[in-house]
Amino acid sequence: MRTVGVTLLGALVLGALLLAATGANPLEAYGAIVTGAFGPDGIQDTLAYAVPVVGMATALAIPLRAGMVNLGGEGQLVLGAISAVAVGLHVPGPFGLVVALVAGTVAGALYAAAAALCEVRLGVPLLVTTLLLSYPAMSLAAYLVRFPMRDAGSSLPQSGQLPPDVRLPAMGSVTVGLFLIVAAVAVYAVVDARTPAGFEARATGWGPRFAQYAGIDRPALTVRLLACSGGLAGLVGAVVVLGFPYRFIDGALITPQYTWIGLLAALLAAASPLGTLVAAVFFAALTSGGFAMERATQVPRELTAVLQAVLIIFLAAATGMLRKKRSPA
Amino acid sequence: MVDAALFSSALGALTPILFAALAGALCQRAGVFNISLEGTMLVGCFAGVAGSWYTGSVWLGVLIATVAGVAYSLVLAVGHVSLGGDAIVLGVAINLLAVGLTSFLIRTVFGTRGTFSDPSLQGLDAVDLPGLKDIPFVGEVLSGHSVLVYLSWLAVVALAVLLYRHPWGLRLRGVGERPDAAASLGVSVTRYRYGVILAGGALCGLAGAQLALGNVTLFSENMTAGRGWIAVVAVMLGRALPYGVLAAAVLFGLAEAFGFRLQGIGLPQQATDAAPYVVTLLALFVSSARIRRRTRERSP
Amino acid sequence: MTQQRPEPPAVELRGIVKRFPGVLANDHVDLSVAGGEIHAVMGENGAGKSTLMSILYGLSQPDAGEIALGGATVSFSSAAQAIGAGIGMVQQGFALFDTLSVTDNVVFGAEPTRRGLLDRRAARTAVAELIERHGLRLRPTDRVGDLPVGVRQQVEILKLLYRRARVLILDEPTAVLTPAETDRLFDVLRGLAADGNTILFVSHKLHEVLAVSDNVTVLRDGRVTMRSATADTDRAALAAAMTGRAVELDKIYPPGTPGDVVLATHELTIRGAGKPVLDGVSLDVRAGEVVGVAGVAGNGQTELVAAIAGLLSADSGAILLHDKEIGALSVRARRAAGIAHVPEDRAEVGSAPGAPLADNLAVGFQRRLARRGFLRPQAIRAHAAAIVERFGVRAATTSAPMRTLSGGNQQKAILGRELTHDAPVLLVEQPTRGVDIGAVVNIHQQLADYRDAGHAVLLVSAELSEIRALSDRVLVMYEGRVVATFTKAAATYEALGLAMAGGTP
Fold first, then answer.
1. Which chains does B contact via 3+ CB–CB distances below 8 A?
2. C99 — contact with chain B (CB < 8 Å)?
3. Does residue C170 share a domain with residue C77?
4. pLDDT tens-digit readout, C290-335
5. What is the DSSP code string of A168-193?
């Protein structure tokens, strides 16, 4: 706990130096971040940003628990979103909403499972297959939304808008999709801590040779975990796209960096369910606070991205130092 | 469809990837899993443009890009080698930091968003190699590139010589294979790992310079667009060997160039965007299948 | 009584103190070795001998105390400095690069150069010369990864000679050698000592220390408990100095009463690059019997066990459990069918060192302990507590990480976990490696009791005394084949040693 405090302080000091160098007042800027993230207006924005970040963080934490890195989160996220929109534009009524959510989840799950099968059957490392498959998925969505699924009334690369009854009901600036994501996190927490399946995933994370020796079926586990991971990522995509502005806009899921920030939260928390949630919420608050800070003080919002990265670097270094000190020479 | 211009453009496009992949391969040989190539390259892009802009000289810009790459790679060096931080966490964070930092700087230094370009910004000139350029086809392909393109080929050869013919190369291969054994023979693991990371930083700086001052002459947010990650894949595909990595980068460049040609016959741009990744995946499947067949014949 | 010499000792350590978090590894240790002497440093695991040698070799710095070479005080802040002062060390597990040649390995860190680049020819010549002079059996261009273990040790010694080491430290050098190779090593060492080199021989093997050393220093719990000329002491005294109590040496357990065949292999074969790794191995193990597999590491024993356990797939041959073929079954299915396994590699394969002890003990039982799909932490803790109690595992709490337990307790925990399966077949590899004498007795008794309860035990061990103590029958493996079978009575050190080196009895 003390380490986190010290590294947080270090990152803040570095950020303050950067701010001062560009002529801004550090205290004013930091104050704006905090009120921006948690103030009465800001909290809505923070929540809206937190939902996809928490969702992606948990999605990536699921296989990370077993030591497997899914670098294709963006592709799975986008595939889930475009599938949800495709379904939502053609299947009517509240039934269409449910089917859209399911379609998004399934699309993400299948795509991630395909990458897992590449490792299991063909021996290409997961890190590589998930990463390489991510780009074609994003290209496919970019194509679909410029041609077959294009919005008839505009020249922008976006899909048509979903009809009113195929939308997630809103609650301020979030939708009821929030509950779906929270439920997913809860399910992960329970499965991880209290089921044989979660135990086996954790055991694989401790040591792959140990897990194999103990009879854990690593290939089956890999495919299962990646399917869950991709499925949750796809669900996140579906949830985002079924909320305002109720359409798929090319790049809208990529620019906010949900996936990479989520990955960092999961890595930092060593994929623990609760830790990942806390880290993801913290990063989301920092980012949304940054937007408010820019509005209030003219300091570019990218500063919070810088602060975030610096903080993680300090934390990673500090954790490393602790680990080194514990083991004798 | 398959003409000299195709290969020529492929060559120019693959240079940043090649530099970055050489950086990654060098680090890999010493046992450092360096995935911060994307971020370091982006820093090189910005530093190169800023340097060229402020000094009016593109060569000083290239130098500044290289120095910036080295300086930025200190984060990984200190965080991972000295302090023991996890290389993957640090790599991802360093990449994110680069995006945030360069976006922050383009606002505060150039007062603009998105893209910075200016007609007076000095870029790298195309160089015609005398004699070479007159050879039909081959000359068209090989001549007319920026100096950095030719430098990247020299870098491949230099890396091969270093790894296999120089004592440092032997030592750093030992450090990568068994650091404890190397240390017991008096070879400093720390020093060699710092060395490869910083040298890799310089190479990524050059990659950024070629990208922002060679192919085009501007800086645009996130302009590396995943090339650093492709470099990581090239290192794996090329098994961290200098010529292997070159082959992987060439494969990737060709796939990208072919992709543009496919657009000419009516395929959408998105198909060509996806083509290099699909081709690389297929290449990996084939190469993995061959490796697995070979290892099944050897002892497990 | 230590022999007195008029000139200053070649190596002297005075009052060395070294602390690690939670343990005092070296507690004011004094050590004195004369030139041309072979000096044994003995102690159990954790006694502090490896730490002491690391300090002498510059890999680690003492918290207090001095090192003196030839009477002059020195201090090393790195191995490079120690090497420069003429000290060389061959570590346990060797420090070799498998992908490089013998020459590259030998000159690594001290390469001859010409115009800045490696002078490969000079290196090869220098290495060939050393090989010739000391009568070693290898070629400069051999790839180290392809060499058998005994030869790899020679590469290690070459490294020291190339750097003109005058003080040679060997850490447990005979752990991976056949008795014949051990004798050859001792001849080389005696030759080096006669040349005036000083040799420090770290070991816990009583009969070897008595065979080759001139003087011996014994450490226990970080302190020196005995200094003696080797000629003036015996195994019992050394064992007592190492453990602090009288120890029954060479206990032989009474034989079991074998029943039906439970486990059998027929012509089990695994192909290799040149020679097969497993070459038509056929064996059987009965209920109530311990079959010991002796042999130097690297002759196929590890692969044999891995093939039976399901961690490796065989190219041909059958594995039968209760007369049913299990060769196509997964590891999980084989375990369910009745195979338990204590692996050789405790840290990487047999346990998860960073995870809590309780979780380590629950692995393999996670489905059995679950109720209605849920695995409660209390169930895991209770299961762990039962194993800890029954097998005498000493741990602060069951939530302590596995790595905080001593080697002996870790092994007892792993053995306890596997015995708890009550499987008809137990595969056990190197059960007492890195385990102190007290725990060795406990573990041997557990294995004997398990056999007497009617189970079949396949025991693979590099320790002949262990094989002889527990086995009802002994098989010797050499180059992937079973080359000899012995009854309990016929399994003498001499016969076993001969078979292990490939000779016929």
1. A, C
2. yes
3. yes
4. 999 998 777 899 999 999 999 999 999 999 999 999 999 999 999 9
5. PPEETTEETHHHHHHHHHHHHHHHHH
Instruction: Count up the domains in chain C and report the number.
Output: 4
Q: Does B188 touch chain C (CB under 8 A)?
A: yes
- From the list C12, C80, C93, C14, the residue with the least C-alpha distance to C50 is C93
Rounded average pLDDT over B163-182: 94
Residue among B95, B93, B80 nearest B31 (CA):
B80
Residue A220 forms contact with C (CB below 8 Å): no
Whether residue C326 sits in one domain with residue C200: no
Q: Would residue C182 count as lying in a domain? A: no
Q: Which residues of chain B make contact with A319, given a CB cutoff of 8 A?
A: 85-86
CA distance C405 to chain A (A): 14
Does A115 lie at the interface with B, CB-CB under 8 angstroms? no
Residue A269 domain flag? no
pLDDT band at A214 (very low <50, low <70, confident <90, very high): very high
On whether both C244 and C258 belong to a single domain, the answer is no
The residue segments making up the domain with residue C403 are: 347-422
- Distance (Å) from the alpha carbon of A2 to chain C's nearest alpha carbon: 20
Local structure of A306: helix, strand or coil: helix
Nearest chain C CA: its distance from B41 CA (Å): 31
Least confident range from B36-40, C144-148, C172-176, C371-375: namely C172-176
Rounded-to-integer distance, Cα A178 and Cα A48, Å? 9
A28 occurs within a structural domain? no
- 3-class DSSP state for residue C474? strand
| Residue B23 bridge partners (DSSP) | none
Cβ separation A320–B93 shorter than 8 A: no
pTM of the model: 0.84
Indicate yes or no: CB of C159 within 8 angstroms of CB of B185: yes
Residues of C in contact with A200 (CB under 8 A): 366
Cα distances (angstroms) measured from residue C474 to each of A113, B240, C221, C459: 49, 47, 36, 9
Is residue C386 included in any domain, yes or no?
yes
Nearest to C245, CA basis, from C44, C100, C408: C44
Count of domains in chain A? 1
Claim to verify: residue C290 and residue C357 sit in the same structural domain: no
A83 lies in some domain: yes
Lowest-confidence region among B151-160, C179-188, C369-378:
C179-188
DSSP state string for C44-105: -TTSSHHHHHHHHTTSS--SEEEEEETTEEE--SSHHHHHHTTEEEE-TT----TTSBHHHH
Q: What angle do CA C374, A69, B203 make, to 5 degrees?
A: 165
Contact A83, A242 (CB under 8 A): no
Question: Tell me: the pLDDT tens digits for C213-230?
Answer: 999 999 988 899 999 999
The Cα–Cα gap between C320 and C42 comes to: 44
Residues C313 and C436 in one domain: yes
Continuous H helices in B77-188:
87-110, 138-142, 147-165, 167-177, 179-184
* A136/B278 CB distance under 8 A: yes
Is the Cβ pair A310, B97 closer than 8 Å? yes
- What value does the mean pLDDT take over residues C271-288? 90
Same domain, C328 and C438: yes
Picking from C442, C472, C446, C474, the residue whose alpha carbon sits closest to that of residue C461 is: C474
Q: What is the DSSP string of C203-264?
A: E--HHHHHHH-SEEEEEETTEEEEEEEGGG--HHHHHHHHHSS----S--PPP----SEEEE
Structural domain boundaries enclosing A149? 54-256
User: Nearest CA to CA, how far is C490 from chain A (Å)?
Assistant: 35
Residues C45 and C109 grouped into a single domain: no
C118: nearest CB among B167, B183, B188: B167
C478 is a domain residue: yes
Residue C432 shares a structural domain with residue C418: no
CA-based nearest residue in chain B for residue C96? B181
Phi first, then psi: what are they for B208, rounded to 5°? -60, -40
Which uninterrupted H or E stretch holds C319?
strand C316-321
